[in-house]
């Protein structure tokens, strides 16, 4: 194998892998512009003619609610989840990584063990609690748990990052009279920005794409998110509007793609440093 082949072979393999990974997105975009009779019958990637009415139908109203309202509801839930996870998980991670207290190792091990619990195990007890509190059919069950550091994965991620930070900075702050909270807020939190941004990105994407939990707690159409609205295009008793459904899917994917491209360098930095330090 000559030098030129060795140089271009990895790039060629990467390009082919990229095309395979991007094909579902290309298929989604092309299908959103297909006529109704081609969505399920034609295997061609490119439609015979562009059906822009799919987007018109999708942008009109879904279950009597405008797309702007649906996007606003989704942004509200995702934004609250991001804020809650970043604050609560960073506080819990700072306690595990920097503070010494009784049974800290046991509690940390118990917290990590909760990663193996399926989400459905705690769903019923949580629903009973929120139902008795009268919070069902509201956004509180989707946002409030995020402020209680219930996401063990993000706590573990930030702990691993904080353990790699130099302790000399915190010791200097302690000598200057800073308490634990002031040290956390002024010293540790700014240094842990890559891990916090990684937490924010994953939380935003997972919350935006969440369907099951939102379906459990939200009943009123005016409180629906963009994910719940997609299900209204599929009717088991009549013809399903697949064209507008795929058009709505494209609209729902765009904020995630933009969010990821804006913060992707922080995502790579946070994942790399969290895995190597600690």
Describe what this molecule looks like in 3D.
The chain has helices at 3-31, 36-39, 53-60, 67-98, 104-113, 119-132, 140-143, 152-162, 167-175, 180-191, 193-209, 212-217, 226-230, 242-276. The chain is mainly alpha-helical. α4 packs antiparallel against α11 (193-209) and α8 (152-162) packs parallel to α14 (242-276). It is globular and about 70 Å long.
* Distance separating the two termini: 41 Å
Q: Which radius of gyration do the C-alpha atoms yield? A: 23 Å
Strand content: under 5%
Q: What's the count of strands?
A: 0
Unreliable parts: none
The overall pLDDT average reads 85
Q: How do the SSEs run, as a string of H and E?
A: HHHHHHHHHHHHHH
Estimated structural class: mainly alpha
Q: Helical proportion?
A: over 70%
Largest sheet descriptor: none
The gist of it:
The chain is mostly helical and 278 residues long. The protein is built from 14 helices and no strands.
């Amino acid at each position: 194998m000559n030098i030129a082949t060795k140089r271009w072979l990895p790039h060629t393999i990467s390009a082919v892998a990229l095309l395979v990974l991007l094909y579902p997105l290309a298929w989604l975009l092309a299908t959103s512009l297909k006529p109704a009779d081609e969505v399920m019958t034609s295997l061609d990637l490119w439609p015979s003619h562009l059906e822009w009415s799919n987007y018109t139908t999708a942008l009109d109203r879904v279950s009597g609610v405008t797309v702007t309202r649906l996007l606003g509801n989704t942004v509200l839930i995702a934004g609250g989840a991001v804020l809650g996870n970043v604050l609560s998980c960073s506080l819990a991670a700072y306690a595990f990584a920097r503070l010494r207290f009784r049974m800290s190792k046991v509690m940390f091990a118990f917290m990590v063990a909760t990663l193996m619990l399926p989400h459905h195990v705690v769903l019923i007890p949580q629903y009973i609690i929120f139902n008795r509190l009268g919070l069902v059919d509201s956004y509180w069950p989707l946002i409030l748990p995020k402020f209680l550091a219930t996401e063990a994965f993000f706590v573990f991620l930030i702990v691993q990052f904080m353990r790699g930070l130099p302790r000399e900075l915190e010791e200097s702050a302690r000598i200057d009279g800073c308490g634990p909270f002031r040290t956390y807020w002024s010293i540790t939190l700014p240094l842990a920005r890559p891990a916090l941004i990684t937490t924010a990105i994953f939380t935003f994407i997972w919350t935006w794409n969440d369907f099951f939990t939102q379906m459990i707690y939200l009943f009123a159409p005016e409180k629906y998110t963009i994910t719940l609205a997609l299900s209204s295009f599929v009717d088991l008793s009549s013809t399903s509007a697949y064209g507008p459904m795929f058009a709505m899917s494209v609209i729902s994917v765009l904020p995630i793609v933009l969010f990821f491209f804006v913060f992707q360098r922080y995502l790579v930095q946070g994942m790399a440093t969290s895995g190597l330090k600690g």
